[in-house]
Specification:
This protein is α/β, with parallel strands linked by helices and 360 residues long. The chain contains twelve helices and 14 strands. It is 40% helix and 21% strand. Helix 6 crosses helix 7, helix 10 packs antiparallel against helix 11 and helix 11 crosses helix 12. The two termini are 19 Å apart. Bound molecules: 3-isopropylmalic acid and magnesium ion.
């Protein structure tokens, strides 16, 4: 069995971490009898440098033809990189947003759980994390503020900027269904997060979520205001199973959730459309400050690659093997610098990839 994977290494630490993920995928392929053909695609700053734009139509076409996309990270230092002197629609991030929209990747899954082995890296008090936590953020990814009309004008000599936040009921319904579907495979609890005390879009969100919930009698659901959710994530993260939320809130809450697990370097993500196709990338950014230094933690990308095998290719056994190998490496005491603690063995990006391969 062969699958075609479009590979976007991107900027900063992107190339290093994707190389490790490919190494792990190939090892899993050998073991479980499948092959992957990779086609490299440029996106982000490297595409601006090579092609003058963050994502070309040809690049989108290659992604569309593939069975899945594996992505590292894009972007540079927003204060010093020349990419950020360009107009907003020509900057690295615009490429990522265009790709999400062109591929209709409306459902973004970001798992956040606490590894027993990494408890020391968690900034919360032990009494809060006792027993661990395991949540899935289901973030809407192609609507809301990210894709609404925006403009900056001058009115009576005063600069004024507009960003509009819109959702229609169909957009809300399809992501809500995804949230409840995934809850059925987990602990059957959905927390729908909104700002219904202020925003119309949130009031519609709440109404549609209630309708969808009727089709899932086994799932317990609740509504939570986003400010409260931000607080609850650090007060008692154990209460969450699936957090279902709109684009902007999901962006913010997923960074917060990743931090409470101890390291953003551990968290994977999948962005899916209506088919088996998906884009898989770590939840973290391109960390330009440590690029090329063999310091980056490749685990989030490796776990994203495992999600690709599971969700897009139905290779559950191989995906399990990768996840187990990651756990074993941690049990065996190996750490990249971001998750290093006393008495453990510090290793670089490449060594971490090798150690995981050896355990598959
Ligand atoms: C993310 C990132 C992106 C987002 C940026 C790079 C545009 O923060 O995937 O969470 O805001 O969606
Ligand atoms: Mg983000």
């Amino acid at each position: 069995m062969n699958f075609n994977v479009a590979v976007i290494k991107g900027d900063g630490i992107g190339p290093e971490i994707v190389t490790e993920a490919q190494k792990v995928l190939d090892k899993a392929g050998e073991k479980f009898g499948f092959t992957l053909s990779y086609q490299e695609v440029l996106m982000g700053g490297c595409s601006i440098d090579a092609c003058g734009e963050p994502l070309t139509d040809e690049a989108i076409a290659v992604c569309k033809k593939s069975d899945a996309v594996l992505l590292g990270a894009i972007g540079g230092n927003t204060s010093t990189s020349p990419w950020y002197k360009l107009e907003p629609s020509k900057r690295p991030e615009a490429g990522l947003l265009k790709l999400r929209k062109s591929l209709n990747l409306f459902a973004n899954l970001r798992p956040a759980y606490l590894y027993e082995e990494l408890k020391q890296a968690c900034p919360l008090k032990e009494e809060i994390t006792e027993g661990g936590f395991d949540m899935m953020i289901m973030r809407e990814l192609t609507g809301g503020l990210y894709f609404g009309d925006r403009k900056t004008v001058v009115e009576n000599g005063v600069k004024k900027a507009y960003d509009s936040l819109t959702y229609d009921e169909n957009e809300i319904r399809r992501i809500a269904k995804r949230g409840f579907d995934i809850a059925m495979k987990r602990n059957k609890k959905v927390t729908s997060v909104d700002k219904a005390n202020v925003l119309d879009s949130s009031r519609l969100w709440r109404q549609v979520v209630e309708e969808v919930a009727k089709d899932y009698p086994e799932v317990t659901y609740e509504h939570m205001l986003v400010d409260n959710c931000a607080m609850q994530l650090v007060r008692d993260p154990k209460q969450f199973d699936v957090i279902l939320t709109e684009n902007m809130f999901g962006d913010i809450l997923s960074d917060e959730a990743s931090m409470v697990t101890g390291s953003i370097g551990m968290l994977s993500s999948a962005s899916l459309n209506d088919t088996k196709f998906g884009l898989y990338e770590p939840s973290h950014g391109s960390a330009p400050d440590i690029a090329g230094m063999n310091k980056a933690n490749p685990i989030a990308t490796i776990l994203s690659a495992a999600m690709m095998l599971r969700f897009s290719f139905d290779l559950d056994e191989a995906a399990d093997a990768i996840e187990v190998a990651v756990k074993k490496v941690l049990e065996d005491g190996y750490r990249t610098v971001d998750i290093m603690s006393e008495g453990k063995t510090q290793v670089g990006t490449v060594e971490m990839g090798d150690l995981i391969c050896q355990r598959i």
